[in-house]
Amino acid sequence: MKFIKRLFFVLVVHFGIYATIQAQHKKATVKKPNIIVIVSDDHAFQAISAYGNKLVQTPSIDRIAKEGAIFNKAYVTNSICGPSRAVILTGKYSHINGFKDNVSADFDHNQDNFAKHLQAGGYQTAWIGKLHLGSKLQGFDYYSVVPGQGQYYNPDFIGIDGKTTRKEGYITNIIEDDAEQWLDSRDTSKPFCLVVGHKATHRTWLPDTTDMGRYDQVQFPLPANFYDDYKNREAARLQDMSIDKTMLMGYDLKMLSYSKNGEGAVNRMNPAQRAKFDAYYQPIEADLKTRNLSGKALVEWKYQRYMKDYMNTAAALDRNIGRMLNYLDQHHLTENTLVIYLSDQGFYLGEHGWFDKRFMYEESFRTPMVMRYPGVIKPGTRSDNFVMNLDIAPTLLEAAKLKVPLEMQGKSILRPFKDKTVKGRDVMFYHYYENGEHSVSPHFGIRTKRYKLIRFYKKVEGWELYDLQNDPREMNNIYGKKGYDEITRKLVKELDSQINKFGDKEAREILDHRR
Ligand code: SGN
Ligand code: CA
Question: How many whole angstroms from 491 Cα to the centroid of ligand 2?
């Protein structure tokens, strides 16, 4: 009897432990994932080794791709900084969230955004680094953002208390330091969503002192269309973003003898930083003086300097992304954290002879995007789905198992990974508005798997059509050419229905009355 009693007791205890473990396990499996979104600025997919560039190394971005997915067809709805971040925050096109360009409006933080939903759903939320949408965020428990574009050296940050603090050092390292400090101090009983907003690789591509010279041994090949003649492409002809004419020797390329009063970004360096800057750039300038370059030789010299500064600046970006991945490893957070890396848009690295972005042509319309989500995304996934910055907000809400508001215009990127029958989009709608710096005419259009139709307005009035299969570099505008009537009609109809779908009244007006 005693034995049976004891056996019964042991069984009850064991069952109790078993049930508790089961319950804990269940709790663990429904545990909401942590979220880290790293948004860089102007980082081109052409500058990332995972996207095929063999001349550069981006091991950390590549690691996210290897352990998760790389998106070969990730795009933005409006290729410029503030507007892209407004789309990321709200999951809505610029004409709905109200922030169409960097100059004419303030972003309305009273509107809905993904962080407000995550916060209400039990997440701790933070945005650290560049935002470029003012400094009064909503939906974030913590934030520390740089004013406007921010400064590479000894940058200022505006905190949640409204105070501005100057921090000594190089911006990309400081942003990662702050992000890790926030992670260290968070309430570990709750899931978190942290957005790390980097300034790199924005103009004027000023590298960390430790990276100056990193890519000096590399001779970057000129893109095939570097010497574009812009034939049949009026908006492309009228831009002011060429390496030849727009890129400045002093301001952009740091050849300080070309700048009367020095350069603000350099003048704010402390003596130690400045000494390293001079030690690197002065010999380059001395060498330039001995060469007496002009014409193509000078443009190509500018291109090489641009590429070196750009890649050297990107080196710190990748290194600090690596620090974040290590942090997650060391704190046993890797398995339960969704990590997304993307840029606010793509960038020209000499294609069409350009730097900057804005155009609906591939290099700036596309953006790099990689995503790691253990248990949901199979390592080594390569996705050719059309995904957009518009999809980030719904993706985060879906990952957090929260309802995606109907007003959000994007779709969760995770759906096709969870359900193979879910089909991605066939068409993407784009609308760029800013009519100012760099002289790019406003335009809107669509891209299908094969074609791109663009309607320029305001500065240039006219259409462009590209067959991306035969003309991936978008050099041959076939709009109005013989034999393309049928496909043009189809594409205009598709554009019409996209405009309806997203409720873009401005585009509607142009399509209806100025066709
Ligand atoms: C600044 C830059 C431009 C850049 C815009 C938009 N000029 O105005 O070259 O196109 O930002 O960039 S600079 O003289 O300030 O460097 S964005 O990243 O905000 O979209
Ligand atoms: Ca940008």
Answer: 29
